[in-house]
Amino acid sequence: MPKKGYEPGSYGAYLVALIKAHNFSQAEFAKRIDVSRTYLFDLFNGRVKPPAPEMQEKIVSALELTGKEKDEFFNVTAAGRNEIPKDVFDYLYNNADEIAIIRERMRV
């Protein structure tokens, strides 16, 4: 029986590929980030939104993402949630001066 394919370009397909690229089984990965396999399969199949920021940090840590790979993960996850990327949000949240600069640029 052929393996299940996930919708090309979907968050689920992206996450499955990321997990495989880091040599985890799906069951092992679910255990590592402390979620049920059912929840993980719901993510893969688009039945739930991409994970919230707290879970994003668990995933980044479990997969040991760094640099561009981490940036891409935050970007793809944010796009699926219709939010700004977690790392950008955290930076802005902790830097009020940057918010003022952005608002000034928006006025131009």
UniProtKB/TrEMBL annotation:
GO terms for molecular function: DNA binding. Transmembrane segments: none annotated. InterPro entries: Cro/C1-type_HTH, Lambda_DNA-bd_dom_sf. Pfam families: HTH_3. Residues 15-70 form the HTH cro/C1-type domain. This is XRE family transcriptional regulator. It comes from Coprococcus comes.
